Amino acid sequence: MLEGSPRLGGKLAVSEVAGISVDAGAEALLARRPEGTDLISAVGLAGQLVPAGTTAAAIWTRGSLHPLPRRQFMGVPADLGELASSGILSPAGLARARDDLSLPPSPRDGDVPVATLVGERLGQELVDRLVDPLLGGVYAGRSGELSAEATVPALAQAAQQHPTLTEAAASLLPAPDAARPARPVFTTLAGGLGTLPPAVAAASGATVRTRAMTRELTRTVKGDIEGGMGRWGGGWRLTIGPTRAPEYLDADAVILAVPAQPASRLLAGVPGAEPAAAALGEIEYASMAIVTLAFPRESFPHPLQGSGYLVPAVDGRAVKAVTFSTVKWPHLRPGHAGLDVVRCSVGRVGEEGLLQRDDAELARLAAADLAEVTGVRGIPADARVSRWGGGLPQYTVGHLGRVARIRAGVAGLPGLAVCGAAYDGIGIPACIASARLAADRVLEFLAAPARR
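RESULT FIELD:
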């Protein structure tokens, strides 16, 4: 395995803040998808799994906190009464949302932005105050650009089967009186999800090389490699390292587990891969940063409640989401009873200028926003800024078609597969599922009778 950066793990990384090990990247995985927990069990870390202490979140908008409605699907309400009680929408916005109950069914032909799917039924204010913050928290994107079929596929399908969007959302949720599931919604590892990649590498038995950036990928055919691929009649050659001192590695098969733009560059020079390379080049990425702050607990005038809050982009705040880490993850508190750790997410697509500020300025901005919401006093005991430049792929309208073109192009290249967050989901379980598909494709190719 060739890793271009100095360490394994990509957006899974953990380090200490005020002596507490806290994830610098992804900090939770969906427990209902088995891929993540199955891999954790396979590498011997099942005993380290811990559930979230709470999933109750809020929306900070128009200068106050409002509870996020529990009966909603990615911001689309299943209960308009609960939405009214939350106070998130203005009276006019709430009245517009109620139009969903009387509007005729909305026909849809092909993929549309999430904002269109939701806005035409429930109004723009609900999109701005509920849907956009939730999508921004996941993708650092905007609902006016993100694909409904790729980001909320279950809702897009249900919308075709129900006369109102609130009914479509309700069909995707448990009944209001249903017993709460015994299995937690979110889980993590006691030492942080950043401890997973080293454990996977150790359990795999693979040879792992860091600082091994692959610059070029080419096809090889029988006789092209001296003493090499004659037995199987073809393969791949990778060019690694700087141009002044290149290294070559010959392989029977290759999996590209890299972002879309590097994958596009690597495939651009491979005959037959041009359509896949072009489609990969169309996938854009958003940059963001996570500012982790540790405060003495007495700095907060009131105990922190819930898992955190989201901030609508229309409110013009620097911080788009906040996680109360020591509330959401109670296992972080023992041994650190005097501190509360808070993670502030900064940066949406199109906000690259904000991220050009230095670490100290980003930390000050995050602390100021946090103080306005929670009343926290003084300066943090410690701060860490984790930057994820080009970290989140944008599933814009037409994404599923682009992925289909990529996979069709790669299918014509024996011994090649692609995987990662750019295809079928950016969550950890989705990325693991993508990797399994790629591994299965390569193993099937290597085991084919024609190659023995």
